[in-house]
Here is the input.
Amino acid sequence: MKEILVCGGTGCISGDSRLVHDALEQELSRQGLEAEFKLKYTGCHGFCEQGPVILVTPKDNFYCKVAPQDVPNLIHQLKEGKVYDELLYVEPTTNERILTRHDVPFYKKQQRLVLKNCGIIDPENIDDYLSSCGYKSLQKVLKLQPEQVIQEIKTSGLRGRGGGGFPTGTKWDFARKSVADNKYIICNADEGDPGAFMDRSLSEGDPHAVLEGMLIAGYAIGAQEGYIYIRAEYPLAVKRLSIAIEQAKARGYLGKNLLGSKFDFSIKIKQGAGAFVCGEETALMESIQGNRGMPRPRPPYPAVKGLWDRPSNINNVETLANVPVIMEMGSERYAQIGTEKSKGTKIFALTGKVNNTGLAEVPMGITLREVVFDIGGGVSDGKKFKAVQIGGPSGGCLTEEHLDLPIDYDSLLEAGAMMGSGGLVVMDESTCMVELARFFLSFSRHESCGKCTPCREGNTRLLEILQRIVEGNGEMEDLDRLQSLGENIIQSSLCGLGQTAPNPILSTLKYFRQEYELHVKNKVCPAGVCKALLSYKVMEDKCKACGLCKKSCPTEAITGEKKQAHKIDVSKCAQCGVCMEKCPFDAIIRG
Amino acid sequence: MVSITINGNQYSVPADYSILKAAEENGINIPTLCYEEGLTITGSCRMCVVEVKGVRKLLASCATPVTEGMEVQTESERVISARRDILRLLIANHDLRCLTCERNGDCRLQDYCYRYKVEDTPYKGDKKHYPIDTDNHFFIRDYSKCIKCGKCVSICAEVNGAHVYDFMERGFDTKVTSAFDDTLQETTCTACGMCVNVCPVGALVEKSVLWEGRPWEVKKVTTTCSYCGVGCQLKLKVKDDRIIGVTADKSGSNLGHLCAKGQFGWEYVHSQDRLTDPLIKRNGVFEKASWEEALTYVAHRLQGILQERGGQAFAGLSSAKCTNEENYLFQKFMRTVLHTNNVDHCARL
Amino acid sequence: MTGYRIKQAVRNGRKLIVADPRKIELTNYADIWLRHRPGTDIALINGLAHVILRDNLWDVEFVCERCEGFAEWSEVVEGYHPKRVEEITGVKAELIEEAAHLFSQAERASIVYAMGITQHTSGTQNVLSLANLAILTGNVGKEGAGVYPLRGQNNVQGACDMGCLPNYYPGYQLVDALESRHKFTQFWGTDLPDKPGLTLPEMMDAAYSGEIKALYIMGENPVLADPDANHVVKALKNLDFLVVQDIFLTETAELAEVVLPAVSFAEKVGTFTNTERRIQRVRKAITLRGNTQSDWETLVALANKMGHNWVYPRGPEEIMEEIARCTPSYGGINYDRLETRGLQWPCPTSDHPGTPYLHRDTFSRGKGKFHGVHHIPAAEEPDEDYPLLLTTGRNLYQFHTGSMSRRSKLERMRPEELMMMHPDTAKDYRIKDGDYVQVESRRGEVKTKTQVTDHIPPGMVFLTFHYKETPTNRLTNSARDPVCNIPELKVCAVKVKKVMN
Amino acid sequence: MEDISKLIDKYRGSHGGLIPLLQEAQDQAGYLSRETLEQIAEGMKLSLAKVLGVTTFYSQFHLKPRGKNIIRICMGTACHVRGGASIMAKLEEELGIKTGETTKDLEFTLESVACIGACGLAPVMSINDDIHGKLTPEKIPEILAKYRRQEAV
Here is the structure.
């Protein structure tokens, strides 16, 4: 039987994929084709740029930007055993229609291990998960000693996918060795990095894999209870995880004496309440306990004294989703993927000025060039590549010189960036690096919990200095201040947030110091972003008085009668640049 | 016991010590703003950061336990640089009207700025200003001077239990205050004043000391509280032979903790109603008398009754407010001078 | 302070049982709140013991090895099954069972009590019943366990230790024991009376009847503090000679013939002994006010005026040396040792470190004794004429008769008496929060403002004795415990009526 | 009020129940009034300061009434790079309020969020539970009208 897999990830849903799905359902039933085609509403396929997307088995034909009105034609073709060419992905460089998914450049270089079920199975149906080897790893694990499980994870070389990249097996081992009446497994689904959504997609697309990872971790360290701490901004993920928990309970994968063993495990969901810092493990535990999400000093580490003062192990969604994969394929085979010190795959959220935005799972060690240009399809609008920002507000940027750098934990650190949770934002020449740093700092300032002095006070000062610079009021000493204060904040802050918040500044200062200096000395923003350093002008000789700019101006700063050259009132202008984009005659210039 | 090296010298300290405690016991001072013995260690001010060999970041010495072979630098260049920036950041958001601040000269922030030669801050920008709360009877709350060390929050929540204060908002907007900024009268505050005693700066100040004298002019005398039977140890703050306030003393079993009576109940000492001279009632009216006159009068009256009726006609009530020495002499007086065992006090009340 | 520590313990996960008719701050922290009727403590405690015995939760080893009188006592407790206790105390039987289980299963349990236990005609028995409970569960003689009476005043313990009691010399040496009398006769170099003297309430009666002619009061205010105040005033007025030494012209001093000005704690040198038997220094912080002098100086001068030769050129320090010589438990106390930290007695020698807790290996009397005690109703219960039960106590911001605390800023926290009354009772009497009422007992009447609150059960009212404007002890009953003469301040019968302010 | 006490009963004595309780209480009224918070503090045996401390820490909680429609505009990196600011400007202009405010008719509350996690669709905003992606300033009036209309029906 052929399967029609409609993407039900958040991206495609916002593109009305639900309506597409419903239209397909009606059409199949109208034509009595239910026996021939199985319709599934799946998790995210990753290629959000092209949404809503549909995958049709067995040939994995990949249809993009599907609208409900396309449905009758699509079904007509499928019924005939044909491919509906109109909706196939078009390779932008060659204009060729690509037949199958794995030939789509976006997927070609990916190695979808953790995402293997995403977009394939119906996340709200446990049977779908079971039929793709779901919970097999758990069954395998229950026959092993916990120490053996930990050894497997150690052998696999799995490192935490959420931030620092701490070896997962070692972490489990610490928790295993702590003696207590109760221990906890916590799944960190408080993915807060702007620009990262892999945990969301995993939770939405393959929730049982997350549960299975938690179960295995729980068995390994000797915990009986698990918590999933998830952002309240992810309602669909909450819903799918809740359904998965209920189904797993009903089938005996959660509860007492699991699968006839002596192992008991239950999982609760805790929804966050809007605080990025709760992604930090000790803050997250404070939050579960009903407190302000302020990090605790470590030691004591969670493995010794965590949630409710009990030993706790905390991993993020992607890390846990790797666990069943490792147990299924064997740790040694897994360890063959990736580089010497970074094993397995990593999911990146590819966004920004890149042609193919979406989620891509790649083996560790792949080069930046492959990710940006092969998978990402290069910089959008034919502009010039400038840099990528990797690791979100705690990360840094990589430039052209790093394009052939193999991406793994250590090489990124060396280059002044970090893996973080895997947000990868591509920037072109029209991105101002100072303004980018300012953006990240304003995020960190807003999300600082306020507990420790360097982060609470220091990030505000960094932001103020950057603000001065982008407004044209900076002085050269400010650059030194950014550097030294930034370093001191990194050195002396209490938690990971403060210890990494200045990274975007330090890294842009390192690679784009000249851009900073231009802002300070010449009062110029080369990317044309910093509004205070810009003004827009209509060149009268080029203006055809079409009125498009006037219509598009959000602040009504443009005046001009028909057939008269238009004018921009500087006092009203918000320097948004929309007029310049809209002008078909290039009559508006920035200076 | 573990052996650790601090600033090049080896020390042997108990394994459950923090770096801070190990240093302190060996005469090495590490600056702290948020640390207070007996309260939860929050590690928030970061003043006490130190460099530990093999660790990339600086560590808060209050929160980091010692480990065997640990090598610690408490005043390295990195450490000093971090501390200087922390101080610069704190004073950038602090009401710097030190000239008339009651804590001038008795202020940790000031002391450390002096110690690390922080004369001014390069970080000029947003500065939080809050109106001073003078509404409660006992102390003022001037949050423009608050450095968010959180000790008032902890002592109120962890020792008193009233939990009147907490951190509100977050990030740069973080503020330590009561719910809805209510005046303390509107909260469950029991006016124990412990928050005032732990405040390292001038954010919480007893009203009674306002404009009464600079800290270095004030003498502190450790004594025992005059109220209930717990016998809290406290320090009386004395200026010009007058008590102007009370502060914590940690030598007693109260560990420096006090209640409203010990902290604010001392003013009766300076009451206008205090008796200043012996009084003898003549024709139903009290008249001032000299000690000689009064004692002679009393001795004469007692002697008369003793001779006439013997010891059984006397009774004496001593006081639970008087010292042991006085109580001893009182019963000795009753028994040996007035020949009676009719002596008691208010133990039953 | 004790409250702080209890609350801290609860926050650290310890269990708390509160037995109090009133809703107090600690009831918020309690795992179990036993809201029994005032005057039914013995029944409640016996009920707990009954359950512990019945369910075999007692410390058999401790009781067999270290106690006596168990058999007789257990017969008494036999009769206090939870249902019966519920009838007497008003506490649900299930709650009693639950509390008994919680208490007996604790590894270490402490019992903390104050005047709510002692100020009854059954005060001594009440204390004994608590002691029974403690030894039954083996909660004596180890750290973190035991029975803790809370002292209301800073030096009640010291005044007792120093022998300001009719039957004891310093260090609880009996006045009617030949050996100790002989010792003190020699030590003080003078003959001593051989019979125990009168207790405070007895003194008042004796003054009233004319047997006592002269009363010397050093720093006490019985007019406000003692029960049945009208009786006290009459007694004091009946004296030939009353001399009062105090820092204020108190209600009692007003009645004196001679008033001698004393000094406050801030102006004197000496020691106080706190409720945990810790002897601590009092230091002089300011010079003497006006023409005052310390009580000890006054006593020395007076003794010398009366022909004795008391010489203490080094002052209180020297007096303490004398105390140490005649008081075994203070034998090792001297000012040098007290300089940095207090010492807990017994501290018999100058190298003894002091004693943090008693009865470690043996009880001071040898074996711990079970005392079979029965419920005794209060001397005066509410009736038709006086239908409400009055119980008395304190508030946080005032102290005792208010002579100190009311002369400080604390006064602003609680400037006047507020009689607590339950909303239901208030409804019956048509009294609103803030109304003024007249409270009347068989002995007197007072006026007070009312606070309508569920902190007190229906049928009861609560007053403090801090305010001279509302001298509560005009109402209270001077009926006394037969053993130790403590008056029943915690229970008497009153009636109320609304009045205009 | 009745409902709040039911909610409190549900979470009383539960480990870490304060935050879910606040979430549910806010779901009922759209915001957390002083009265509600006092009731929660009393019911959960927590001090009011503690409850306020938690409430003001998390950006999800609101102490003032909010609009029927909550617009959250994404300020994430991707949206930022793709012109999130101009969307914000247009929304502010259309609604006549600043970010963080509520319109006088209580129809709309405008907020910014760190990241909605729909970066592939940048710039995006969410209105209530719906996500609107690939926005341009021109699309804004039409989208708003849809929600205004829904209210009218």
User: Anything to note?
Assistant: The first helix of chain C runs from residue 2 to 11. Chain C is about 30% helix and 15% strand. Chain C has three domains: 2-150, 156-344, 388-499. Residues 388-499 of chain C form a domain with the Barwin-like endoglucanases fold (CATH 2.40.40.20).
